[in-house]
Amino acid sequence: MIVRELELDLDAFEGPFDLLLTLVLKDELDLREVDVAAIVLAFIERLAVRDELDLEACGEFLVLISALLELKARGLFPEEAAELAELEPEAAAEELARRLAEYRRMKEAAAWLRERLETEGDRFFRIGPAPLAPKVEQPLAPQEPLRLASVLRALAVEPPQVSLSHMSLRFPPVSQFLERFRAVLRRRSRFDFDAEVNGLTRVEQAVAFLALLDLRRAGEITIEQAAPFAPIRVARSGEENTARDERTVAWTVRSA
Amino acid sequence: MDRPLRLIAANPLDQLARTIEALLVVASVPLTVEDIAEAAEDHPERVEAALGLVGDRYREGRSGVVLEKVAGGWAFRASRDAADACARLFEKPAQRNLSQASLETLAIVAYLGPCTRPEIARIRGVAADSAVANLTERGLIAEAGRDDAAGGAIRYRTTPLFERIFGLESLSELPRLDDIGADADQIRDRLHQVAEMRSA
Q1: What domains are there in chain B, each with its CATH number?
Q2: Are both A176 and A251 inside the same structural domain?
Q3: Does A166 reach chain B within 8 Å, measured CB to CB?
Q4: Chain A neighbors of B95, CB-CB under 8 A
Q5: Is any Cβ of chain B less than 8 angstroms from the Cβ of A159?
């Protein structure tokens, strides 16, 4: 009889014993799921079929199954494995007996439950969801209707109008700056925009810039700026700076 | 014509008893005396007394509906006489085909619960994952917080449904573990006996 070829039919595994060992060693089968006692039973059944005792097979089986049991024990009680190993043989046997007794009691308890299930098998009752009403909160203390009304009235008062005055912006007319820039350009052929609008408010500066763009569109002026945020230079049309081309290129490159 | 039964009508608790009947017919879980007292807006002592009246009326052999104290409360169930008829019409999914592994796990949770899966595995010697999942699905056990120890494994306890199915008033009705099963001494003796037989 060859132990390795022992056919097994367990909950967690079906096949020859050596395949089970291989799978366990490769961690492809969780030993914790394997009922080792069932393997022992399978072996004993197989043994019983033959008349003579196969000592060699028994020895081999004992070695394999005890190794398997040790592996399983270590897997189930990773911390306690060391704990048990430290115990004296006598104490370890005590501990083992204690655990066996505990399991035995639970097996008996399970048997009692099964028996109970049979004797109580004729119990029928309503189950299903239990739609119990939520507990009602304690109601508020008695209230006076007049007081409630006065509170509601206070809530119903229209809120005060929110003032938007701080948001109103006063825009000076663009024409004001158009005339102003034309006047400047009549006196000088070019001027510095930033210098010209210096001291004005932010809004006035914006309107002044619009006026500048207007003049540029009408072809009255040319505008130059050496670099982003550099001073904007304004010149009467036809009187550009001689270095204009060069600067424009520089500006284009930088802005790109 | 609409007069209630004379015996019951003679009792001052009759109105309360009828309210209790109504509450128990609607309920799908056992109701405690406190539950009933709150719903009926009456005193717990009077509810207890009225439950006595109802119990006398609804008992085995007298009625198809039986009042019983179960799972920490009071509930109606079918009389045992009607069990066969009930079985032809209704299924009992929670307790059908409970495996040995599930029953052992259930016993451990019932006796030692709340307990964790590692604790169950420690006693049974095999992983308890599938048995615990199975029992949870059947509604026989339920999660009951986490273990305080490192890892914080989920703890399980039995449900009121468990007590109801097994006809237990409470878990304290389970037989004492000392009364069932062999104790450590017996097992140790048996181990020694086997060892002696070997050496002989």
Answers
A1: 6-89 (1.10.10.10), 100-195 (1.10.10.10)
A2: yes
A3: no
A4: 117
A5: no
